[in-house]
Amino acid sequence: MKQAAIADGPELTVVDSKLMKRVFYGFATLALLSVAISLGGKWFGHSIAMAGYTDDPTLHKVVIGKNVIAVPANMIRFNQARRDGIASRLDLYLRYPEMDGYSEAARDDFNHTGSSKDIIFLSFEPQMMSRDMSGRFSPIYSALIVQPGTAGPGGTTVYGFNEKSGYLNEVLVVGKRPGKDPFVARCLSGPSADESLAPCERDIQVGEELSLTYRFPREFLGDWQRLDAAIATEAARVLKTGR
Predict the structure, then answer these.
(1) How does pLDDT run across 193-227, given as a tens digit for each residue?
(2) pTM given for the model
(3) What is the pLDDT of residue 17?
(4) Burial class (CB in 10 A: 0-12, 13-18, 19+), 227
(5) What pLDDT was estimated at residue 113?
(6) pLDDT in tens, 102-143
(7) Angle at CA 66, nearest 5°, toward 64 and 71?
(8) Strand 59-64 with 85-86, pairing
């Protein structure tokens, strides 16, 4: 009777322990994948919002020739350059007159969403010429410009280039500095200038056989003396002792 009762009862199926383990690991894998997707989505969304910028203040030391340039990551333009080590060139960007890098507070300035232009672009690279732009005025630029010039912002004089100069759609902006070579910058002219965020360019010599080229909005020409001093001060601040 007892055996019959057992025989007539519900049939019990023994599940393979290996199958159970596979099911368990499968669910665990899906759970981990879900977490990874969630975190990855948050990271990727943040990456899109930053649009290549970073607000990371970590200091990086970049070596160019005999110079060490110490700057925070949020001043370095390109992601691949945000590292320590040797480089042939270093490109930065910062706000003027604050002279700071990207931050949440400065987002609109770096995204150029307002009507004003506030960003300066800087490039450090090995010196290719014996003279900087100011030093090239008398021996080179003076023979390429059309005299007389016209009055420019901040007491400068603006000169057009002659047809043989090779500087198409550009003008030369010159500011007198008593006892020193003049302030000299080349600026785009016409529609090209209106479309550019930083149509003016100037280079100076810094450090040991290092050239610093900075590009800036034409609106800053009215403040050229303070601008040039601020750039020189910033270069001196970030340049450290050579190797």
Answers:
(1) 888 999 999 999 999 999 999 999 999 999 999 99
(2) 0.78
(3) 56
(4) buried
(5) 86
(6) 999 999 999 988 777 899 999 999 999 999 999 999 999 999
(7) 50
(8) parallel
